What does this fold into?
Amino acid sequence: MKRRNFMKAAGALSMVPAMGMASSLKGYTVSSGAKEIYEWRIYTLTGDGNVLDSFLKDVLIPAYNRKNIKAGAFRLYKDGEKEQRHVLFIYPDIEAFLMMKKTIWEDAVFRRESDAFYRLTASDPVYSNFESYLSEAFDKIPAHRLPDPSRTLFEIRIYHSPNEEANLRKVRMFNKEEIDLFDKVAINSVLYGNILAGPRMPALLYLTWYHDEETRSEAWKKFVSHPDWKRMSSLPEYANTATNNQSIFLSPMPYSQL
It folds into this structure.
C-alpha cells in the first residue's frame, strides 16, 4: 500500500516540470516537421592545408554526399594568425546525423580512400584539433537557403547568451522579426541554428553571404539604422539575450557545395 501511494505521488510530481515548461514556452512556435541539423567544424591547421583540402574534397565530402548530406567548406576571408578550414555538414534531421556517425566507418570506399590520409597524419598531423558545433535549425528557416553563385564572402556569427532562458529569447527574436529585417536589408541568410552542443554554451549560430565586402557593409549600415531594429532592440523582452558574439569572415573553397 505504501509503495502504491508513493508511485501515485511520484506520478503527480512528474507532471509539475512538464506543466512549468509548457507555461514557460508560451508564445514560442514549435515546428511539427523535421528541422535540419548542422554540424559546423573549425579545423586549426598546423601542417599543409592542401593535404586536408584533398582529403575533404576527394574523400570525406564524397562519403557524406553518398548519404545525401551536403557540405560547405570555407577558409578565412583574410589570413589570420593560424590557418583554418571551416566545414559544414547539413543533415535532414537528427536521426541522419546519428546514422552517419555510425555508418561512415562501414563505408568500404571511404575506409579504402581515407587510409593514406589517416596513416600520414597519425604521426604528422595537419591540424591540431577541430572545434565542433551541433545545432538545430530555427523554426523560421527549417532548411538552409542556397547562396547566389556570385558570392565571395560568408560570415558565421556565434552568439553567446548569459543563460539558457536568455538564449531562448534570442532565438525567439530571430524567429519573430530579426530574420525578416535581415531579408529587407540584404543580409542574405543561409542558415540559423540553435547550438545543441559546443565548446561554449548556451549559444546560437547563423551563416550569411554577400557579393563582397562593400555590399556587406551597406547591408549592415541599413540594419543598424532601420527603425525596426531600433524598436526591437529596445524591447525589454529581448534585453540581455546575447551578451557576447564572435564574427568570422570566410571565403568558399572551390569544392564547397554552398
